[in-house]
Specification:
By secondary structure, this protein is an alpha/beta fold. It contains 20 helices and twelve strands. A six-stranded mixed β-sheet has the order 6-9-10-3-11-12, sandwiched between helices. Helix 3 runs antiparallel to helix 5 and helix 16 runs parallel beside helix 17. The longest helix has about 55 residues.
């Protein structure tokens, strides 16, 4: 797996290139925004010409109102049309940014999903949430404001020069020479602000991650009387972020001052030269007034770009972490072969059909896996998992039990060796197809905001009857029926309002509903009261008759009920057999039993 690069050394060209590549998601809308802005600029030129013509006719030709009325109506029409075009351009730019945000957020979610829970478990949740929410939102101004402004900066001034040059080449030359000074100083000043902006986003990500960690561990902090200390630390982090934000704003204000200064001086130069030539009679008033009206508008796109340049800096800072995430290569391999499809729960109720009959023997051959910078987690593991059996995995902490589960789930790929499903290597199978045959029940079942039925369904297309039958098999129907709205009862985040045993029975109901061929379970009965433990044990006895069941057993009672027990030690299977056989032949198993019945 690719190792994340240091954020402080991420090459800026890679981030800028990514921002350019993501621009393709804007599609037609970004081009429409630029086109509408250019049309608005052309109408502005016509408006200035009409105004200059009216002023010249009234002042020097003593024209009456009736004579200039057609030009005034034309100016009013142009003014109203420009207002409509400005509104349409804003809408088009907004839709362009929306398209980019939707596409990028979807891509990030799918990529994180492909990276799997192993990678996700190594990240700080607060930082990821900040990237996926505020980070993506920070790109809106870049695509809705900065990119259209950058295109119009070149198109609109060039269009104005094309009209000014035939009337007064000297003024056109001044405009042409002074215009590059504005983007030049914008770039020079912006470089420092860009670096500070990237530092601000990294600091915001760290602060978000720390704050979320503190919120999640607030109970523990209260128990150890450490909440005041953490509050002081958050206050210091917030003050550092405030000072950093002010430093970015100081540079941004300096950039705005430079832009306004150079544009004002340039307009003054044009005005002075035109004024002298009008005084000496070397220029017609209509042309001079027309150029004077266009001069501020000529620099306006350049000033707008400078105003929106902070959006570019903010986007670069926000995109830095996104580029790092997308640069991570998913560890699982994607094959092309599939196993026979099993029964679809969307159209069938759950019956006594044994899904395990459709899953051949699983052969683990010489599996090796080492996490980056750590000792080997698996070191030559060999094991056969037979169809329809209940296999308990036991062993001390760090023996490699969780790593073995992650390999079977396809979240990790072995560094050496292979997993065979029958005679078909797991690496040759489609990852998504393989996972449709699996159900995974971690020790801590995750529930999501929604109804009880939604949490059992978990994205599957299932009938209400199938959901109720799954709950009944999982020993959960009774307590669900007693809830205020039964299966339509809302469940809070993390299962607030439900006991630990009820939450785990909902997790078991997911496995029954999935009708999986292989179920991986991490000790469902640990840390529960006797009644909940008995109900879960009864549900497991029902589940084991329907699939191949592999469980990490932390309790001796659970291991004793298994058809076979595999003892893991230092990344290998040191012994397999029944409880009685291992008591007679495995010293490590005897030590685990002697520890009091609860295994690490």
């Amino acid at each position: 797996m690719t190792t994340p690069s240091d954020p402080g050394h991420k090459p800026a060209p890679a981030i800028i290139q990514a921002l350019r590549d993501w621009r393709t998601h804007a599609g037609f809308w970004l081009r429409a925004a630029v086109g509408l802005g250019l049309l608005n600029g052309l109408l502005l030129i016509g408006q200035a010409w009409l105004l200059a013509a009216v002023a010249a006719a009234v002042v020097f030709e003593q024209a009456v109102l009736a004579e200039v009325m057609p030009q005034l109506w034309a100016m009013l029409s142009i003014f109203l049309l420009r207002a409509v075009l400005a509104w349409a351009g804003e809408q088009a730019a907004f839709h362009a940014a929306i398209q980019v945000k939707l596409a990028l957020r979807t891509r990030l979610y799918r990529h994180i999903q492909a990276l799997g829970p192993v990678w996700l478990g190594q990240q700080r949740s607060g930082e990821l949430v900040n990237t996926l929410s505020d980070g993506v939102e920070a790109l809106e101004a870049y695509y809705a404001r900065y990119l259209p402004a950058m295109s119009l900066m070149a198109l609109v001034p060039l269009a104005m020069l094309a009209f000014v040059f035939p009337f007064d080449w000297l003024s056109a030359l001044i405009l042409l020479v002074t215009a590059p000074l504005i983007p030049l100083f914008m770039i020079l000043i912006g470089k420092g602000a860009e670096k500070r902006s990237q530092q601000q986003w990294r600091q915001l990500a760290r602060m978000s991650a720390h704050f979320l960690d503190v919120i999640q561990g607030l109970t523990t902090l209260k128990l150890f009387n450490a909440s005041r200390r953490e509050a002081g630390l958050i206050a210091r982090l917030s003050d550092d972020y405030r000072q950093g934000t002010m430093s970015v704003l100081r540079v941004a204000f300096l950039s705005s001052f430079a832009l306004e200064f150079f544009s004002t001086v340039s307009i003054a130069m044009v005005a002075v030269l035109i004024g002298f030539r009008l005084f000496w009679g070397e220029m017609d008033f209509r042309y001079g007034f027309f150029i004077l009206l266009l001069a501020p508008e000529y620099y306006l796109p350049l000033r707008n770009l400078g105003t929106q340049y902070h959006a570019r800096m903010e986007a670069i800072g926000a995109a830095e972490r996104m580029v790092e995430i997308l640069a991570q290569a998913p560890e699982q391999e994607t094959g092309i072969q599939t196993l026979p499809r099993h029964q679809d729960t969307a159209t069938a109720t759950i019956d006594a059909t044994a899904a395990a009959e459709q899953l051949p023997v699983i052969q683990l051959r010489d599996l090796h896996y080492t996490y980056p910078g750590q000792r080997p987690a698996l070191n030559g593991l060999n094991l056969d998992i037979h169809p329809g059996e209940m296999l308990a995995i036991v062993g001390p902490s760090g023996a490699g039990k969780s790593t073995l589960f992650n390999l079977l789930l396809g979240f990790l790929v072995p560094r050496h060796g292979q997993i065979l499903i029958g005679n078909l290597p797991l690496s040759a199978m489609q990852a998504e197809h393989w996972r449709t045959r699996l159900a995974w029940l971690p020790q801590k079942v995750t529930l999501f905001p929604g109804t009880v039925a939604d949490n059992i369904r978990l994205g599957q297309a299932a009938t209400p009857d199938a959901i109720r039958e799954a709950a009944r098999l999982a020993q959960a129907h009774e307590f669900i029926s007693a809830l205020p709205q039964a299966y339509d009862t809302p469940v809070g985040e993390a299962g607030h309002g439900l006991s630990g045993g009820q939450i785990r029975r909902l997790g078991l109901a997911r496995a029954f509903l999935r009708n999986a061929s292989l179920v991986l379970l991490d000790e469902a009965g640990a840390s529960l009261d006797r009644d909940s433990e008995a109900r879960i044990e009864a549900a497991l006895q029902t589940l084991r008759r329907r699939c191949t069941l592999i469980l990490i057993a932390h309790r001796l009672q659970t291991a004793q009920h298994a058809d076979r027990i595999a003892v893991m030690e230092q990344g290998r299977i040191s012994a397999t057999g029944t409880h009685a056989e291992l008591l007679a032949g495995s010293a490590l198993y005897r030590q685990l039993v002697a520890a009091g019945g609860d295994m690490p």
